[in-house]
Amino acid sequence: MLQSPWRPCAQPGDTLTLPPPQWLSLLLLLLLPGPLPVAGMEDAAFPHLGESSQPPPRACPPRCSCPRVDTVDCDGLDLRVFPDNITRAAQHLSLQNNQLQELPYNELSRLSGLRTLNLHNNLISSEGLPDEAFESLTQLQHIYVAHNKLSNAGLPPDAFRGSEAIATLSLSNNRLSYLPPSLPPSLERLHLQNNLISKVPRGALSRQTQLRELYLQHNQLTDSGLDATTFSKLHSLEYLDLSHNQLTTVPAGLPRTLAILHLGRNRIQQVEAARLHGARGLRYLLLQHNQLGSSGLPAGALRPLRGLHTLHLYGNGLDRVPPALPRRLRALVLPHNHVAALGARDLAATPGLTELNLAYNRLASARVHHRAFRRLRALRSLDLAGNQLTRLPMGLPTGLRTLQLQRNQLRMLEPEPLAGLDQLRELSLAHNRLRVGDIGPGTWHELQALQMLDLSHNELSFVPPDLPEALEELHLEGNRIGHVGPEAFLSTPRLRALFLRANRLHMTSITAEAFLGLPNLRVVDTAGNPEQVLIRLPPTTPRGPRAGGP
Question: Sign of the C-alpha dihedral, residues 344, 345, 349, 355?
């Protein structure tokens, strides 16, 4: 099926249109606060088409651009009236970012070859759409009517009669309070986010058996507004976004084909296994910012989801790692909960984890068992930032690539917890209470692959000695460093970036010989010290003297 060359301009709150089956990289974006612009967004940036080597067609509406015989671009012209003189050969028509209030039936009906119609961001009201508005557009595949003034009246009942090819319909950011009637059965992507929808009537989606992506986030849906048949007929559904609603339970009747279920920002207090029984193919379950407490995920609640890859539980009230998690789970995202302890077997059920995020919980060193991470041999990323740890955890998996320990209460570093971490590339120890005397001899000895070390905002009085040889980026800002001697960086010949801002450096604090053995050094940041510090990089570098600054 032809894909639309035009997508409307991105607006705050718009959501991802995901190209399955490569869900993983896109799902990780959803785990962060706020949307990120990526290829495939429903309202992705709409570029002006470039100049064509062929002369533009003769029949082109005034001020519009017609780079090809089948393309008419009237984007952003403040049009108040539907343009005339549009060629009958047009297949792609963009009228987004104008001030149109209505669509004249006679003008639309003559454009029977249209495949893409973009009306994004206009002033079109329900009264501005004629009955059977799109009935003659039998080739129409993509229609965008997001960010308009459609209200409770919605679309005319027969608006899509005869339009049997529509794959994408965007009605997001309007004032709809219920699903439009008589939606095309050919739909593959339906965008209804940012409306006022509180209920999906029984049978409203019974004919949309080809629907793959359904976006209902930022509405007013409650449990009573959905029933066991709402989604049960959607035998092709892969992505369902119900985030930012008022649900207190997981919806029933989820289809087996579902791969991603986004339920973040609801009021869910408990997850019941029965509600997930039908969605056995689920790979990504997002439950962030709900009301899951100590009993919110009882043992066995996720047992039906044997293929679950990612479980996102950010910002709930869980006081422990949920028991009996699916064995094939690869990413467990649990920051900003109330987890205070890690027992020897709390993570034993998920030996395949590659990412574990327990940041900003209540973990104390005395309550982290020395065998808590023993089974996690596949773990590559561990985030324990923002807890109450006073020392490094023991028994860390030797395959770790990234270890986040910033914003704890670390007072000492010893070689033993870091032993065997010869694949570690990034280590953050920022915002702790470390002094140089607290770093034991040989602490860095086995970190042969370490490229980034963050020791910023501690209590260091000089550059720690014997840093890893592979180090390329070193953060020492916000310490108490008042002197940098000639041997400070002898052990780090690959250093590329050095951050020394907001220390206690003066003009004569750094000896000229300190940087002689650093041919790759490109960035030295010494801003925010008591005096401006002039840094002269080694003569082998292409740049001359540089004053430290922002």
Answer: negative
| N-to-C CA span, the chain | 51
Q: Give the residues across from 452 on adjacent strands.
A: 426, 473
Backbone angles phi, psi at 53, to 5 degrees: -70, -20
Q: Cα separation of 518 and 521, whole Å? A: 6
Average pLDDT over residues 390-415: 97
For residue 439, list its beta bridge partners: 413
CB 251 within 8 A of CB 231: yes
| Range with lowest mean pLDDT among 89-98, 200-209, 480-489 | 200-209
The amino acid sitting at 422 is D
Say which amino acid occupies 29.
L
pLDDT for 548? 54
> Could you say which architecture CATH assigns to the domain 451-550?
Alpha-Beta Horseshoe (3.80)
CA distances from 233 to 169, 179, 211, 284, 350 (A): 19, 16, 10, 21, 33
Average pLDDT over residues 140-145: 96
CA dihedral angle for residue 428, residue 430, residue 432, residue 433, rounded to 10 degrees: 110
Contacts of 24 (CB under 8 A, 6+ apart): 309, 310
Average pLDDT over residues 311-337: 97
Q: Can you tell me the distance from the alpha carbon of 259 to that of 542, in angstroms, rounded to the nearest whole number?
A: 51
Show me where the domains of the chain are located: 451-550
Report the distance separating Cα 275 and Cα 164, nearest Å: 33
Q: Is the pLDDT of residue 59 over 90?
A: no
